[in-house]
Amino acid sequence: MTDTLAAPATHLLEVRHSRFLAHAAPVEGPAQAMDFIARVADADATHNCWAWRLGQDYRSSDDGEPAGTAGRPILAAIDGQGYDRIAVVVARWFGGIKLGAGGLVRAYGGAAAECLRLATRQPLVAMAEIELACGFEDLGAVHAALITHAAEKTGERFEADGAHLSLRLPAAQVAALQVRLRDASRDRVRFHPMQPPEKHP
Length: 201
Fold this sequence. Notes:
- The protein has 2 domains: 3-123, Impact, N-terminal domain (Ribosomal Protein S5, domain 2); 125-200, Alpha-Beta Plaits (2-Layer Sandwich).
- The model has no long low-confidence stretch (mean pLDDT 88).
- The N and C termini lie close together (12 Å).
- Helix 2 packs parallel to helix 3 and helix 4 (139-148) packs antiparallel against helix 5.
- The protein is built from 5 helices and 12 strands.
- The longest helix is centred in the middle third of the chain and has 19 residues, at 100-118.
- It has helices spanning 30-40, 71-80, 100-118, 139-148, 174-184, and strands at residues 3-5, 9-15, 18-26, 47-54, 57-61, 86-93, 121-123, 125-134, 152-159, 162-170, 190-192, 198-200.
């Protein structure tokens, strides 16, 4: 299981007079990631290098540092600690001593990794969306079961044959909800195919 951040985090690292300030935050999409990067990037810094990860989607930038010495190590720190849906910016103020490619990789990756290690984690829960149909006589049992299985009603419509509900709930709860409602309604509740699970904090 992957995690996101419970709250934004920062960490300052000094390496041979260069300062590296890491900022990390949870993000829900590429636009929000880029907005966070623009907001925390320091105009006075020598470089503002960054990376974000959103499921299979990711981007990184070396912002003028030698190719592969900043953005990729920041992304590697995100992945190495099992994070998803986060963005990390590491600002560097040059201290007069060149660090070399290996030194930059260690400094950018290290600042990002330590920032994430110290941050408060929040598990990402796989969510599923399902639809069910039931007769009016079973609505009471259905609503009681929704509460027990942390299901949120995202839509409902009433027709001559009964109620049709759209639900969102933790994917791990789907099978238990189906069993409970089949037992409670003597198999009268009908379930429609699920959407692919999504992960949400």
